[in-house]
Design a protein that fits this description.
The longest helix is centred in the last third of the chain and has 18 residues. Helices cover 39% and strands 25% of the residues. It is an alpha/beta fold. Helix 3 runs parallel beside helix 6. It starts with a strand and ends in a 5-residue tail after the last helix.
Length: 257
């Protein structure tokens, strides 16, 4: 598959604090790429940098072979890159229908919005039922569905999806990830998925990257990562005290890749 987005040697900081340290990754068109890591690893910083909310100090981001690092977020949306942020960030006092219309604010082909709404309601039928309800009164799972659906209204080629399982029950997590898989397989949507639920993420992903303290320390096909002893020990189960010590040893290894 051809690369839709290529990230090379990306460095992003908050003042003097370096949050991303030489991050490089490829996102093939039509794939699901997941980024795994613990709290504070730099996952959300990576997503905010790719979406234009943060400007990198160093490195490059190419989308369809074109440099896009430094472009404003609204320009990136027009280019086909949509960010569904951690915490959903819906408009709580607007109705579901109004939130969806806001997702299409960059679109000029207003005649196509009806078809887009029909597609969104096909994947998220509950949003059709709740169209006149204030978004802030939805359940957590429904709000996450609305956040993804709002992003789809821009008709993106690439969706940056940050922690979609956050705060959801296992049943809702399963439902959300089923929809993510369907969007990729049925609509050809390319997805970069940041997620702490490593098992759910690797189950839908084609390729995965492991981010630790702002650096990529491991990457490979999702199946291979799922079978990795390190991944199983540190991300697919509850780490014991001994495992946490092992994680510190792993971080100090020089031959990470």
């Amino acid at each position: 598959m051809n690369p839709l987005m290529t990230v090379h040697n990306l460095e992003t900081s908050y003042g003097p604090v370096m949050a991303l340290r030489g991050v490089s990754m490829n996102v093939p068109e039509g794939s699901v790429v997941t980024v795994l890591g613990s709290n504070g690893a730099g996952k959300t910083t990576l997503m905010r940098t790719l979406s234009g909310a943060l400007v990198p100090r160093k490195g490059s981001v190419r989308y369809r072979s074109k440099r896009v690092d430094g472009l404003e977020p609204d320009r990136l949306v027009r280019e086909g890159i949509v960010h569904v942020p951690e915490g959903r960030e819906i408009f709580p006092f607007m109705t579901v229908a109004e939130n969806l219309r806001m997702g299409a604010f960059t679109r000029r082909d207003r005649s196509g919005l009806t078809a887009e709404l029909e597609l969104v309601h096909e994947y998220f039928p509950v949003l059709s039922e709740r169209r006149d309800q204030e978004a802030g009164t939805l359940s957590g799972g429904e709000q996450q569905m609305l956040a993804i659906a709002r992003g789809l209204m821009a008709r993106p080629a690439l969706m940056l999806l940050d922690e979609p399982s956050l705060g959801l029950s296992p049943v809702l997590v399963s439902e959300i990830f089923t929809i993510i898989r369907r969007l990729n397989q049925e609509q050809g949507l390319t997805i970069v998925l940041v997620e702490q639920n490593a098992r759910a993420a690797l189950d839908v992903a084609d390729h995965g990257y492991v981010l630790e303290i702002g650096r990529i320390v491991m990457d490979g096909p999702a199946e291979r990562l799922m079978d990795s002893e390190d991944i199983r020990e540190f991300y697919l189960g509850k780490a014991s005290t001994e495992s946490q010590r092992g994680r510190r040893r792993w971080r100090r290894r020089k031959s990470w890749r």
